[in-house]
Design a protein that fits this description.
Length: about 100
């Protein structure tokens, strides 16, 4: 392996490309991919906000019916909302 002379580039050859800035088309593709990821994240957050209270409220309603109480629906809804908010904060708020 020889060292390059001062006027000779060391990593340019037929199998290596020189690094250059991305083209306008590549920038547009990167921007579109970023926008898709952000939109997907937003819709996931909305889904978490809806499903948490629905699932835990439903479980509370079943437990109310089975146990003959009336307060577990509210506790399930509030607990489901709290868990949904925590999950959203943990997944999307820490990066």
């Amino acid at each position: 392996m020889s060292t390059p002379t001062p006027g000779e580039p060391d990593d340019v050859g037929p199998d290596r490309e020189q690094s250059s800035e991305p083209t306008e088309e590549e920038r547009q593709e990167q921007l579109q991919a970023f926008n898709r990821r952000e939109a997907d994240s937003a819709w996931r957050a909305v889904a978490y906000m809806l499903t948490g209270p629905l699932i835990y409220g439903g479980l509370g309603a079943l437990a109310d019916h089975w146990l003959g109480t009336s307060w577990l629906v509210g506790a399930g809804i509030v607990g489901g909302m709290a868990l949904s908010l925590y999950l959203i904060w943990f997944r999307y708020g820490t990066h």
